[in-house]
């Protein structure tokens, strides 16, 4: 009691809120940052020098860069890379959703399967996995479909059933699914348990509760790191040469450079394309994030308790509640 | 005799690990009756409520709703736990309202109300929407159907939650401290809706700290402490003249 009392006198000096207090107006001089400005100037000078040097440096072969940057083979390879990214991500998302739900299901068999999958696919390098998929037709010369202990219904030579592009997509997708599954699991766990309870109490089954109630709410948490994974996947496609698939952007550039003896220029070409595609994907991610943040962004803290996860904490405001009320205070002051 | 009983609990036990939360709860709720369950926090009253719709499973004892054993099937001298899908079927007829509302924040008020009728009862959308409008009107929120929970006050959210539970046409309603999370000035509107529901003959079990509501609306009051029923009876009598020391001590703090 006494100690909190001692803190009081400090507030005695604040001017009366109605502005009648006679506290002198302070002529505020903002803290200046001379070093910041100096460092910025130095860095800009260095950067300009570097760029000028790079632009005029013979070894970077800008004439070769200009010749190949819009080369038909390169743009086709860029399209192949984009296809590898999109297809493998789509498969990975579906598989990861299944794995995450299995991991969280009350069924110990599903749980174990999911855990084992993650253990294998996160525990080995993607390059090795891609090499394995390339060797599939060596290990399993034919693929048979049917029931165990009966004659197979269909038998196909592995090489006919799957081409290298499909093998590359499978390899990338199965690896990515393991990482995405953990992202999705984190998203699902972020949804308050009360949601699951309310749905259960209404007589909804576990799977109805998951697909209708929990997963839609977890999307807000899942989208940003998934966008990150898409961009990461774009660059991981350069490893498909291990399958070996050789029509992706990186492998194609390298193959051309082997003919023209200009590796530096062609790697710059490949980098420019990767950078361009990444930039487009980042714009897409920005809009997706904005879309899924909508429900939260327009919540009105001044209208009492809300149904957002924060509100389920004891004081009804949640961990960021103080920020909100401070923000509100600020608006009232203006 | 038994066909007039909506809830019949007989020596219900529940443990969380080594912690025994319910130590032989026995009580009866007649059809159309309102029972208020009061007691200090940690007394097991919420846990008991959650056992009635099998959100928690009973460890020993028998709990019947409308004559049917909850969550178990009796075969010989053993109780066999029901499959989740069977338990889900039982829950359809038991509505529950939570302290923290637990509305689905990604759905509007009306979507919250029609979700279970459409998904669980396989009602047609048109029929479910018509019924939902009726229910929202009944809780005084006819104009709020299109609002998201985040845009509603706590009292409004809780009234939507009551409408959501009623949409399944339950024969029993469970309320788990329905007004404890509300600002004081919003408590009344929720209690009014519950009072109207009681007058319409709904069987209700209400865990609450609102002694005024218990006195005015409840047919019986049960005081729980430490996982056992300490005292029960007519709410006006128990509140005015508690017999047991622990009841007296508790009431002296909340009244």
Description:
The complex is a heterodimer of chains A (334) and B (255). With 334 residues, chain A is an all-alpha fold. In chain A, strand 1 and strand 2 form a beta hairpin. Chain A is flat. The N terminus and C terminus of chain A are likely disordered. Chain B contains nine helices and twelve strands. In chain B, strands 8-9-10-3-11-12 form a six-stranded mixed beta sheet, with helices on both faces. A four-stranded antiparallel beta sheet of chain B has the order 2-1-4-5, covered by helices on one side. In chain B, helix 3 crosses helix 4. Chains A and B meet through helix 10 and helix 11 of A and helix 2, strand 8, helix 3 and helix 5 of B.
- Secondary-structure element order of chain A, as H and E? HHHHHHHEEHHHHHHHH
Instruction: Give the helices and strands of chain B as they follow along the chain.
Output: EEEHEEEEHEHHHEHEHEEHH
Q: Counting H and I runs of at least 4 residues, what is the number of helices of chain B?
A: 9
Strand content of chain B: 25-35%
Secondary structural class of chain A: mainly alpha
Shape of chain A: flat
Could you list the spans of chain A in which at least 5 consecutive residues all have pLDDT below 50? 1-16, 297-334
Give the terminus-to-terminus CA distance of chain A.
36 Å
Question: Strand arrangement, largest sheet of chain B?
Answer: 8-9-10-3-11-12
Low-confidence stretches of chain B: none
Average pLDDT rating of chain B: 93
User: Can you count the beta strands of chain B?
Assistant: 12
The proportion of residues forming helix of chain A, as a percent range, comes to: 55-70%
Q: In what order do the strands lie side by side in the largest sheet of chain A?
A: 1-2
Beta strands of chain A, count: 2
- How would you sum up the major sheet of chain A? 2 strands, antiparallel
Helix content of chain B: 25-40%
């Amino acid at each position: 009691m006494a100690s909190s009392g001692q803190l009081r006198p400090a507030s005695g000096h604040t001017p009366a809120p109605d502005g009648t207090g006679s506290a002198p107006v302070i002529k505020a001089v903002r803290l200046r940052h001379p070093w910041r400005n100096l460092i910025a100037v130095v860095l800009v000078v260095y950067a300009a020098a570097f760029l000028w040097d790079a632009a005029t440096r013979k070894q970077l072969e800008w004439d070769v860069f200009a010749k190949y940057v819009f080369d038909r083979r390169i743009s086709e390879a860029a399209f192949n890379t984009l296809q590898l990214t999109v297809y493998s991500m789509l498969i990975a998302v579906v598989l990861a959703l299944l794995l995450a739900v299995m991991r969280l299901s009350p069924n110990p068999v599903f749980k174990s399967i999911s855990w084992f999958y993650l253990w294998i696919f996160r525990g080995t390098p993607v390059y090795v996995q891609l090499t394995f998929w390339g060797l599939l037709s060596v290990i399993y010369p034919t693929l048979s479909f049917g029931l165990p202990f009966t004659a197979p219904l269909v038998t196909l030579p592995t090489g006919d059933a799957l081409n290298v592009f499909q093998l590359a997509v499978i390899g990338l997708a199965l690896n990515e699914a393991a990482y995405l599954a953990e992202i999705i699991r984190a998203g699902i766990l972020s949804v308050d348990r009360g949601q699951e309870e309310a749905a259960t109490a209404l007589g909804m089954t576990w799977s109805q509760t998951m697909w209708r109630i929990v997963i839609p709410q977890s999307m807000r948490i899942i989208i940003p790191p998934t966008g990150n994974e898409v961009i990461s996947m774009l660059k991981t496609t350069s490893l498909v040469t291990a399958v070996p698939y050789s029509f992706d952007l990186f492998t194609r550039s390298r193959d051309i450079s082997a003919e023209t003896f200009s590796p530096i220029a062609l790697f710059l070409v490949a980098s420019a394309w990767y950078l361009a595609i990444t930039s487009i994907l980042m714009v897409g991610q920005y809009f997706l994030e904005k879309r899924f943040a909508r429900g939260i962004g327009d919540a009105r803290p001044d209208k009492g308790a809300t149904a957002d996860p924060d509100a389920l904490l004891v004081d009804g405001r949640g961990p960021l509640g103080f920020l909100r009320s401070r923000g509100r205070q600020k608006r009232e002051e203006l | 005799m038994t066909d007039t009983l909506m809830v019949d609990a007989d020596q219900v036990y529940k443990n969380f690990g080594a912690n025994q939360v319910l130590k032989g709860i026995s009580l009866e709720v007649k059809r159309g009756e309102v029972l208020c369950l009061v007691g200090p926090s940690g007394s097991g009253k919420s846990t008991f409520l959650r056992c009635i719709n099998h959100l928690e499973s009973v460890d020993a004892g028998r709990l019947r709703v409308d004559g049917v054993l909850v969550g178990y099937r009796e075969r010989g001298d053993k109780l066999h736990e029901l499959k989740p899908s069977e338990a889900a079927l039982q829950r359809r007829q038991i509505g529950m309202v939570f302290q923290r509302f637990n509305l689905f924040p990604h759905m509007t008020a009306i979507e919250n109300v029609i979700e279970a009728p459409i998904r669980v009862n396989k009602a047609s959308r048109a029929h479910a929407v018509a019924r939902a409008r009726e229910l929202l009107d009944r809780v005084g929120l006819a104009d709020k159907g299109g609002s998201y929970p985040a845009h509603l006050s706590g009292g409004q959210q809780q009234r939507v939650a009551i409408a959501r539970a009623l949409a399944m046409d339950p024969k029993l309603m469970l309320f788990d401290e329905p007004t404890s999370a509300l600002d004081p000035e919003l408590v009344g509107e929720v209690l009014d809706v519950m009072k109207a529901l009681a007058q319409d003959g709904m069987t209700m079990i209400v865990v609450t700290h609102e002694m005024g509501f218990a006195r005015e609306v409840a047919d019986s009051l049960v005081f729980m402490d430490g996982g056992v029923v300490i005292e029960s009876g007519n709410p006006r009598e128990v509140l005015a003249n508690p017999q047991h020391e622990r009841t007296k001590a508790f009431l002296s703090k909340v009244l």
